[in-house]
What we know:
Layout: H1 2-91, E1 105-107, E2 110-119, H2 121-129, E3 134-135, H3 141-150, E4 153-156, E5 168-170, E6 192-197, E7 200-205, E8 210-217, H4 223-227
Antiparallel strand pairs: 1-2, 2-8, 3-8, 4-6, 5-7, 6-7
Amino acid sequence: MTEEIVYANLKFQDTDKKENIQKSERCGGRVYTTLETEMIKSSQLQNIKEELQRNVSLQLMHDLNSSKKIGNLSAMLQKIATQLCRELYKKEPEHQCKPCPKGSKWFKDSCYSKLDGFGTWQKSGMLCSARNASLLKIKNRSELEFVKSEGLHGYWLGLLPRKNYVRSEILNENMFLSVGFERSTYDLHKMYCGYLEGIYVYYTYCTLEKSIICEETASKVQVESVLNDLPQESV
């Protein structure tokens, strides 16, 4: 009777061990299957991420190319509008497309405005500065020829004051290499400033009063101001 009980207990324990092993194997299989599934999902997500990155890069390249094309077209349109405006300006000096203040003259990229009244060299420079402009300065040969053609007389120039008197010089662009004349710290009561007389530059006391002409950078021609003036096709 005792041997049968012992045998039964051993058989039960053996069966219990087998069931535990089987359970462990089943659990291990499930863990392996879960890991495999997660690895597949991770791989799929990585592929999706890479595909999105490629698509974004392609879109950015497309947008960049489009921006360049738009920029080139805009620049071309601006150039054409400026050329058209110059032609309109020749016929009508105060045409609405003119990128300069009313009453001024437009040449190349600059506007030239004669102010009413007279002023000392320093006061004239300050009046021009208040308009975001400067006293007339000549930067290149074409501007030199333009100024000569205007036949200006008695206008202050944006030249640095001199300590020593010089009666006259021929107007040339090399005179204007120095800058900063409006904020001069010299004692202008003892200095000589240059003014324009046709193609000559004369010097006199800076404290005397002369005519004023200001030079400023021209604004961009507004494309709409040109397009609005073009003849409309009849419907």
